[in-house]
Amino acid sequence: MPLLIDVRKLSLITELIEEGAEAVAGSLTTLAGVEATVDIKSLSFVQPGDIPTEMGGGEVYSARVRLTEPPYGVFLMTFSPATAAEIAALMTGSAVDGEFTQLQESAVQEMCNILTSGFIDGIADTLETTIDMATPTVEQAAATDVADDALSHVRRDSLTIVLDSLVDVEDTDAAFSLRIFLVPDPGSFVHLIDQLDRDVETGEPTRDRAGEVRELDMSGEVETFEDAFGDG
Question: pTM for this one?
Answer without folding.
Answer: 0.79
